[in-house]
Specification:
The protein has 19 helices and 13 strands. With 495 residues, the chain is an alpha/beta fold. The longest helix is centred in the C-terminal third of the chain and has 21 residues, at 388-408.
Length: 495
């Protein structure tokens, strides 16, 4: 096995034993990027010099006897996270030459841990998309089939992990942007509970649902990374401390029969016997591809054989999830992107005769079509006379969706759904139909609107042509802040 193909856990053992060095591991990943990225377009920036310096520093710490964690582990991060001294473009012409002046909290935490940043990954512009086709710097291709998309908006990170360009990658998930590309690329994609990971330094899309999470090769690796990402941050008012999480889990009124009463991490590691897993019928009654349903049914059967109880449940307001999400999201985008005007932010800066013309020309040239579409939708929905009819009503529906999940989790411990209604589609196949592209999020927006932890794990492969199979994912959800417990179930699914 090439070193870049190692999991975090396997690399950790070799690093701690001195069998390999952080520099060896980093070189292997940089070589893989050099060989594969030209055709994949997964990385927008490769910081080779900085990565080797960080690897050298990690080796000194290892030689001094420091072990464990992410010390010496190379990774990539989505290019909407601030990285001091490196470009942060959000895959937009608006920020084509912007160099971040500070590190996002998660980057600073990984730097402190000794993880090695290899570079930045491609994404849909400002994370607006489900295929990484709206990037101003070209589409990212799926490593399993170069004619197909990698998913989005964290498509670059998912493709990088699937192609072994790194040992793990960071993405952001607003309405499925970690989980859906993870499904398309056959890797692990984890969306933490809202508030568990600091958003400071993330270029905001939808502030009320944005979260940062890992894409990894194994469930165990995702848990390792989350341990270093999570925790309170005074610079992010929405983040929560470990103590707060513990108190919230105790205070939840009988959420999850077993989780709230008897389950400990030791119990879940040992057995899932007796766990109640809900199957929301609304998710299986849609136009789910028969091949995907067959693959998921096999995983359901496997869980039953391990002693879990699979129970049919209903989430009646889930059918309104996409509609509510695509009102709330453009509204928050309209607000968050108002700062990109060519003055304080933005690099277009075309000279005009008036300030109004300056804004219009610079934003017109700087933003792509999908970003403009979302800004206009959001501005319209927030305007006088339409706020109550659209935004306020969407937030009311969001409350009902949260209530749906709370009701469900009073009866079951976890929820199981498909991640995506189909496998990765062909590049360009949906470019002329924005509504169809929005429906890519049909199974993943619910967890985002409710702030729940959710993970997509590889479920198997389905045929997409006579001679080609593609990976598909299965999604697992838990009550808010039961992130670690979710990992133990996920590990049983991928066995």
């Amino acid at each position: 096995m090439n070193l870049n193909e190692l999991t975090i856990k396997a690399a950790r053992i070799k690093l701690d034993k001195g069998e390999i060095s952080a520099q060896d591991l980093t070189r292997a990943c940089l070589l893989a990027i050099e060989e594969k990225n030209k055709e994949l377009n997964a990385c927008l920036l490769v910081s080779q010099r900085e990565a080797m310096l960080e690897a050298k520093a990690a080796d000194k710490r290892l030689m001094a006897g420091e072990k464990g964690g992410l010390l010496g582990i190379p990774y990539l991060c989505k290019d909407n996270l601030m990285t001091k001294g490196l470009k942060t473009t959000a895959a937009s012409k608006m920020l084509v030459d912007y160099i971040a002046s500070y590190d996002a909290t998660v980057i600073a935490q990984l730097k402190k841990a000794g993880a090695i940043l290899l570079g930045k990954t491609n994404l849909d512009e400002f994370a607006h998309g489900a295929s990484t086709e709206t990037s101003a710097f070209g589409v990212t291709k799926n490593p399993h089939d170069l004619s197909r998309v990698a998913g989005g908006s964290s498509g670059g990170s998912a493709a990088a992990v699937a192609a072994n360009l790194c040992l793990f990658a960071l993405g952001s998930d607003t309405g499925g942007s970690i989980r859906q590309p993870a499904s398309f690329c056959g890797v692990i994609g984890f969306k933490p509970s809202y508030g568990l990971v600091s958003r400071f330094g993330l270029l905001s899309m939808t502030s009320s649902t944005d979260v940062i999470g890992p894409l990894t090769k194994t469930v165990a690796d995702a848990k390792i990374v989350l341990d270093f990402l999570s925790g309170g941050d005074q610079r992010d008012a929405t983040s929560v401390s470990y103590n707060y999480v513990a108190e919230m889990k105790k205070a939840l009124p009988r959420v999850s029969p077993r989780l709230a009463k008897t389950a400990t991490e030791k119990d879940l590691k040992k057995s899932i016997k007796g766990l109640k897993i809900g199957l929301p019928q609304e998710y299986f009654a849609t136009d789910l591809a028969p091949d995907i349903k067959k693959v998921i049914d096999e995983k359901i059967k496997m869980l039953k054989n391990q002693g879990a109880q699979l129970i049919d449940i209903s989430l009646p307001y889930s059918k309104y999830g996409i509609s509510a999400y695509y009102i709330i999201t453009p509204c928050e985008i309209s607000s968050n992107l108002a700062r990109f005007d060519g003055v304080g932010w933005g690099n277009v800066q075309v000279k005009t005769n008036s300030l109004q013309d300056f804004y219009q020309v610079n934003r017109g040239l700087g933003f792509g079509d999908e970003t403009k579409r979302r800004i206009m939708l959001g501005t319209y929905a927030l305007s006088a006379g339409y706020y109550d009819a659209y935004y306020k009503k969407a937030q009311a529906v969001r409350t009902l969706i949260i209530a749906d999940f709370n009701q469900a989790f009073s009866k079951v411990d976890f929820i199981l759904t498909p991640t995506s209604p189909h496998a990765a589609f062909k590049i360009g196949e949906q470019n002329n139909d924005p509504l169809t592209m929005y429906l890519e999020d049909v199974f993943v927006t619910g967890a985002s609107l409710a702030g729940l932890p959710a993970i997509s794990v590889p479920a198997g492969e389905v045929p997409v042509s006579d001679d080609k199979n593609m990976p598909v994912g299965l999604q697992l959800l838990a009550p808010r802040f039961f992130d670690k417990e979710l990992f133990y179930l996920a590990q049983k699914v991928v066995k």
